[in-house]
Structure formats: structure tokens, C-alpha cells
Amino acid sequence: MGRWAKQAVILALPLALAACFGSDGDRPSLMESTQAGGPQPFPDNFRGDTVALMRAYLNNPVGVRDASMADPVLREVGGRQFFVSCLHFTPRETDGSYKTMRERAIIYVNGRADRVVDRTNALCAGAVYAPFPELEKLAR
Questions:
Q1: 27 lies in a domain?
Q2: CA-to-CA distance for 10 and 72, rounded, in angstroms?
Q3: Is residue 23 part of a domain?
Q4: Cα dist. 128→68, 72, 131 in Å?
């Protein structure tokens, strides 16, 4: 193998590895595994699990404003029933400014927060929000 061919392989390797995690870069999820089979239990610690997941999800977890959350309800996701709760919040941007409010859905698998979903139209339709100060108190 020539020098250029080796360099091309080295440069292509990260792209090939990224493809293993889905087309949009999502992390592996229990949702697709057999571990999520059967009726889903209610996520008893949904507030704490959501705070932990959002700490990892947000680029800058400090300074979140206007946070509110809907209690989890059963919704169909990928042809299966999972508990889903919805969030409204305004994150601090990397430049320190605040822009638009965001809506995200949290999907719980086996009673634990598993993933954050950006496209929330059907998942959050009719959600009833209540203040979620825990999200506003996040620190690094």
C-alpha cells in the first residue's frame, strides 16, 4: 500500500466509525435492543434522570432559563410504547447570549432516561408543562 493510500485510510477511519452510531450521530440506545421489551415501567426518578441526561446533552449546562417540564406519558416511538416527557428551556449560547426557547422530548427506557429527541411535534402534542427549576440550577 502506498503512502497516499495509507493516509486516505487513516482519514476515512473516523467517518466509518461515525457511521456505526447512526446517520445523525446518535449514541447507541436501549430503545432498539431486546432489553426494552415488554411493558415499560413508569420512570420514578424522571426529574433526576432528566437533569443528568441534560447535563451531558447541553454544550453549556450553566445558565439555562425558563425551564419547564411535562410529566412522562406513554407515547409510541418506533412502533413501541415508551414513557416520554417534554421540556421547554432557553439555553445559554457559547457566546453568552440567549436565543430562542427549545423544546425537547426525553424518552425513558426501562424506567431510565435514555435519549433526547429534537423533533418533538407528535411526541409533545398536548403536553402540560410545569416549572422545572432543577434544570436551571445545572453546573458543570
A1: no
A2: 44
A3: no
A4: 9, 10, 10
C-alpha–C-alpha distance, residues 27 and 37, integer Å: 19
52: Cβ–Cβ under 8 A, 6 or more apart, which residues? 113
Residue 10 lies in a domain: no
In a domain, 114, yes or no: yes
pLDDT, one tens digit per residue, over 93-121 is 888 899 899 999 999 999 999 999 999 98
Number of domains into which the chain is organized: 1
For the question of whether the overall pTM of this predicted structure is more than 0.70, the answer is yes
> Does 10 score more than 70 pLDDT?
no
Domain that holds residue 129: 33-136
The Cα–Cα gap between 133 and 67 comes to 6
Q: Which residues, at least 6 apart from 103, have a Cβ–Cβ distance to it below 8 Å?
A: 86, 87, 88, 120, 124
